[in-house]
Design goal:
Blueprint (H helix, E strand, L loop, with lengths): L17 E3 L11 H7 L13 H12 L19 E7 L2 E6 L4 E6 L4 H7 L5 H4 L2 E7 L2 H7 L2 H23 L3 E5 L4 H8 L6 E9 L5
Helix pairs in contact: 1-6, 2-6, 5-6
Length: 210
């Protein structure tokens, strides 16, 4: 994907304001098989920023709408869609709105350094230009499936995260899954509503040159 629009376009957006993202693409330059074969966890990132087009494509791959009746790119048990998706970048913290393919600025501050601290000092999170954070509203799923719904929520986030990793690879980006973090500290950094719990973080960026 050509990086035509700059991530910095999000900088002037005020807290609580939304911006429509560039349209997603459904045809790329790398096959699924190639992305699977090439994907590796990357923990050393270049300071170069991916474009806004790339960020939009990543968010769509994780939780974007793929049908007229509102189904999403990643499967969800009973189509309950318990996941909320945030994007941390140098220009603030953004909440992804799948139905509008838009982001709403949740915080104007760069939260990557405190997020890294909440992840037990994994400094590559502060270095990565992008981090996608999945939070779950478990009640959306457990209200239908009871306690077994907790299992389904974690299946859901696995589906979404794998889409994200493969899409990153297809865009020429590296990514790494992060599961080691203090839940309460991450929730505090992100100022999550009380019904949301962070369950998965993916740091993304161009690989650092050797």
């Amino acid at each position: 994907m050509e990086m035509r629009r700059q991530l910095g376009e999000l900088a002037p957006l005020a807290a609580g304001k939304s911006a429509e993202l560039p349209p997603h693409r459904e045809v790329g330059q790398m096959t699924v098989e190639e992305a699977i074969a090439r994907r590796r966890s990357v923990r050393s990132f270049s300071p170069e920023e991916p474009g806004l087009d790339a960020a939009a494509q990543l968010l769509w791959a994780a939780q974007g709408i793929t049908s007229e009746d509102g189904l999403r790119a990643a499967p969800s048990a009973g189509a309950r869609y318990p996941l909320e998706t945030c994007l941390a970048c140098p220009y603030g913290l953004f909440h992804y709105e799948p139905a509008k393919h838009a982001v709403t600025k949740a915080q104007v501050e760069d939260v990557r350094a405190p997020l890294a601290s909440a992840c037990f000092g994994q400094t590559f999170i502060a270095d990565a230009p992008l981090s996608v954070i999945f939070a779950a509203v478990h009640e959306r799923t457990t209200s239908r499936y009871g306690d077994r719904g907790i299992r389904y929520v974690y299946m859901d986030v696995g589906h979404a995260a794998e889409n994200l990793h493969l899409q990153a690879e297809a865009l020429g980006l590296g990514s790494v899954p992060v599961g080691a973090f203090d839940d309460d500290a991450v929730a505090e950094v992100l100022r999550l509503p009380s019904d949301q719990r962070p369950i998965y973080i993916v740091a993304i960026g161009f690989r650092a040159r050797a």
